[in-house]
Structures are given as C-alpha cells and as structure tokens.
Amino acid sequence: MKQYKMISAVIFDMDGTVFDTERLGVEKWIQAFEEIGIPAPVKVLYNKIGLSGKDSRKLMQQECGIQFDYDVVKKLKQKKIKDHISLYGTPVKEGLVELMEFLKTQGIKSAIATSRSRENTLFYLQNAGDNIDKQFDAIITGEMVERGKPNPDIFLLASKCLEVTPEHCLVVEDSVNGVKAAVAAQMRAVMIPDLVEPNLDLKQLVFTVKTSLRDIISIICKANDIG
User: Fold this and answer.
1) What is the tens place of the pLDDT at every residue in 111-165?
2) Do residues 98 and 91 lie in contact, with contact meaning Cβ atoms separated by under 8 Å?
3) Cα Rg of the chain (Å, integer)
4) CB neighbours of residue 1 within 10 Å
5) pTM score, two decimals?
6) 3-state SS assignment for residue 174
7) Three-state DSSP state, 9
C-alpha cells in the first residue's frame, strides 16, 4: 500500500531528469575515446550513470586498465559538452517548466541534487533558458558530500537545506544509483527512466515509475489532497 504523506519538497536529480543531458554525455564520452584512439567502454558509460566523479573514475579505471588516463578523456568530453551547450543551450526535459510553476504556486520547495560539480551544474542551469537557474531553492552538488549515490548523503543534505524532513520529500530520479540513494534516505523515489529502464527489483524499490515530469503534478495533488 502506497503511503501518501504530504509532500513539502521535491528533490531533483539533474542529468537525465531535469535536463536531457545523459545521452549527450554518453555521446561525447564516445567521441572523446575515439579521439584518443581507445574503444569506448559503452556498458560502463551506462553503469556509471548517477555515480560521483570519484566512483566513475574508479569504475572506468577498472575497465580500461592502469594506463588509461581518465582525466585526459574526461577533459575532452567536458569540452565537447560545453561547446555543444554553448551553441544550442541545455536541453530541458518535457514538463519541467510546467512542474516548476506548479511547485511555486503550491509553496512546495525544490532542490537539485546532482553528482556533478558546482561549476558544471551552474553552467547547465544558466544555459537552460526560462530562468530555470532561479527556480530551485537549493542546489546540492557532488563535492558537498563525502559519499556519492547510491549512498543517501546528497539527498539528506538537500532535505536539511530545505528544512523539510525526509518523509515529506519526493525525489525524482532517472538512474538506478539515484533511486537507491533516495530509498536509503527514506524518501519516496519516483523514477522517470531515461537511458536505463527499471528492472523488477528496481520497480519494487520506487514509489512509482512515470514517463514525464508533468506526471509529478498528479502525485503531489493526491498526496496533498489538492483538488
């Protein structure tokens, strides 16, 4: 039986959830590997979604070997992404603007909780248009916590910054690691799949699986008894 406790805050993952940047990231990783003449470990690029930079480095180093220079490839990837976003803007997920307007009208707090660095996070937000960078009450980034997802630290810090207890926070995620982190923080996790579809075990962990950020509005309406 789903528990519909009142939702006072919504905490969003960024890549693949708020912005359509996970597939852009995978594409630019592959291009960066091609540029240095090494086959891209495509499976690892998907498995690392939601991980901190430190954990991503460890996973890719294990796959590519001790001679692999993670920093060189990552720097190439980051430049390719920044060049793309500088030209075309940050691609925004369907329903985000509508959802953020709804949260504001209802007095519901919001936060970004991303494994990315603050510098990259702000770059994405500032290039998204529609004043999206000013819509969130808190921005929590990877370097602000000791342990990355799937540990709960980043969501617990977001809860603290918003001054809302975990049981009244709703987390919106696209990744396996993010969902596990939200559940470990004892928050309701809604998964909106992006590059990775949930398996049966993950479906049992999440509060629900939806297809669009717009669907979050109906979840909040039900939990908060909004007509």
Assistant:
1) 999 999 999 999 999 999 889 999 999 999 999 999 999 999 999 999 999 999 9
2) no
3) 17
4) 3
5) 0.89
6) coil
7) strand
